[in-house]
Task: inverse folding
């Protein structure tokens, strides 16, 4: 068994990410359990040093402090600062999508979320790398749906990837990542955590994330927690799509929030009979 030194603990913390328990340190540094008290003292010193912090839950839980950051250019126009994405319904005429951002599409069951995901591929194929993370379809099912789009045989062979969790581990930072769909956690407020982890893995790309929502309510499961980080939030139900949030207006004179369109969904894939409805009057 090794001897506990502050240097070894400090180096271990520098190489770790996220939360950990003191028992994790003991195991990975090959230390005896009776070093636990001494380790707590060492951790107290390292917290004061700014290398870690207590997460404020049960005793013994800590988190490594990450002091890295990117400096943003606020003194010049950046014409490439927005992702060149086309949406169904021509929504890009009303909202701009910043690079390294999350777009949330909330919809009730069979509202058309997957159709949005698949139409995004059709509208943007060939412009940049696109990945669809599909959490529920088999090969046969996804072929049946995507084959309804013209030119689908020219799409990349690795376009559709089966995945249902931990999307941050497989996100391509500079691509258009489409997640259909992200399952809400048991504690709905915790939806902000996977959304944050996904956003933090992005570089020049974006992530468009489908979320379930209950009928009769605009916000998806997670409510405002699902809305806070996203730069664009859309909601779908009963043949109507609405912009709930658009942080960057495409037209300086037009606030996109509240704009609605009605539609009919044909074959589960094609949006037809699209009609602008404007904003609801109160």
Result:
């Amino acid at each position: 068994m090794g001897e506990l030194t502050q240097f070894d603990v400090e180096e271990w913390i520098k190489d770790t990410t996220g939360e950990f328990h003191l028992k994790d340190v003991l195991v990975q540094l090959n230390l005896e359990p009776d070093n636990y008290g001494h380790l707590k003292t060492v951790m107290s010193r390292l917290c004061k040093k700014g290398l870690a912090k207590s997460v404020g839950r049960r005793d013994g839980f800590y988190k490594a402090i990450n002091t890295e950051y990117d400096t943003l250019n606020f003194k010049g126009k950046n014409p490439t600062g927005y992702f060149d994405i086309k949406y169904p319904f021509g929504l890009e005429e009303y909202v701009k999508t910043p690079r390294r951002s999350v777009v949330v599409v909330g919809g009730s069951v069979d509202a058309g979320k997957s159709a949005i995901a698949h139409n995004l591929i059709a509208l943007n194929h060939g412009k940049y790398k696109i990945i669809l993370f599909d959490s529920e379809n088999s090969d046969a099912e996804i072929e049946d749906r995507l084959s309804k789009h013209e030119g689908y045989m020219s799409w990349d062979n690795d376009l559709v990837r089966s995945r249902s969790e931990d999307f941050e581990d497989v996100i391509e930072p500079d691509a258009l990542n489409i997640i259909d769909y992200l399952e809400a956690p048991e504690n709905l407020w915790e939806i902000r955590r996977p959304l944050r982890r996904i956003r933090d893995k992005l570089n020049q790309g974006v992530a468009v994330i489908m979320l379930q929502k209950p009928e009769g309510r605009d916000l998806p499961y997670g409510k405002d927690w699902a809305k806070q980080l996203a730069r664009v939030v859309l909601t779908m139900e009963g043949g109507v799509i609405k912009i709930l949030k658009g942080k960057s207006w495409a037209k300086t004179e037009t606030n996109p929030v509240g704009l609605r369109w009605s539609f009919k969904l044909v074959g589960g894939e094609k949006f037809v009979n699209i009609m602008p409805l404007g904003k609801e009057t109160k």
